[in-house]
Design a protein that fits this description.
5 helices, elongated, four-stranded antiparallel sheet, Elongation Factor Tu (Ef-tu), domain 3, Helix Hairpins, alpha+beta
């Protein structure tokens, strides 16, 4: 009697039903707890950044390969529109202009004399036409030198500050070399790359704030325009805003985190 009873007990211990009964306990013990860091990152608001730049910016250059005579403004100096910021030593051009004026005068005298001779049939029309052509050439040469002479002084095209200097006083820069960088200081803009889905509510005039990393201060602004196309790969769009309020401490190149008041 003890043999059959022992065999029945072993059969029940290793039956499929017993294995299924213990499986839930093992599965529950192996389940990993939720990661609080991942959960909080998924629910955090999307941060966007903006970079400050000047609305007007220009690198001044010239086709005059002449020594620089005056650089009245240095890096960081403020200037007003119309003030001369670069002056060249144009003594050579002034001498060339005098020579061109004398040549023009001589050709004009020859033309006048030929016309008088033509009236008395002393010369033909060919001589008169040739003298007129020489006067026109001398006039063009004179005007070309006069135009170059007018470029000896370069005025500022807008109000602003000097950014970088590419040359020094008394140097002779190469033609069209960068001499001076000008940045407008009264009107600053912010470049932002934002999710394209924000176009549902974003529009010109939408207010935003920019917390600047360099100053630890927050400046206010408003959206003024958006790019005409969306980047299909990153699903982003370039948005430009204009800063308002006191801009005396803000400089182009600063950056920070942006926040939109009307963001859903």
């Amino acid at each position: 009697m003890r043999g059959p009873f022992l065999a029945l007990s072993l059969l029940l211990a290793f039956s499929p039903a017993a294995a299924q009964t213990s499986a839930p306990a093992d599965t529950a013990g192996s389940q990993a707890p939720a990661d609080p860091v991942v959960s909080s990152a998924a629910s955090a608001p999307e941060l966007t950044r903006g970079i400050v730049r000047a609305r007007d910016e220009a690198w001044l250059s010239s086709d005059l390969s002449l020594p620089i005579d005056q650089l009245p403004f240095k890096e960081g100096d403020h200037f007003r529109k119309g003030q001369v910021v670069i002056s060249f030593d144009c003594a050579t051009l002034q001498a060339q202009l005098k020579a061109a004026a004398a040549k023009l005068q001589g050709e004009a005298i020859t033309l006048k004399n030929n016309r008088q001779l033509k009236q008395h049939n002393a010369i033909g029309q060919y001589e008169v036409d040739l003298a007129e052509a020489k006067v026109n050439v001398a006039q063009a040469e004179h005007d070309a030198i006069a135009v170059s002479l007018d470029r000896c002084d370069i005025p500022a095209p807008f109000d602003g500050q000097v950014g970088q200097m590419g040359v020094h006083l008394h140097e002779t820069p190469d033609r069209n070399a960068r001499i001076m960088q000008l940045l407008s200081s009264s009107d600053l803009e912010v470049d932002m790359i934002l999710p394209s889905s924000w176009l549902r509510w974003l529009k010109p005039g939408t207010p935003f704030s920019l917390t600047l990393d360099e100053l630890g201060e927050t400046a206010n602004g408003e959206v003024i325009r958006m790019a005409a196309a969306v980047d299909a790969v990153s699903q982003t769009v370039k948005v430009v805003g204009r800063l308002t309020g006191d801009l005396s401490r803000i400089r182009p190149g600063m950056s920070g985190v942006t926040a939109f008041k009307d963001q859903p």
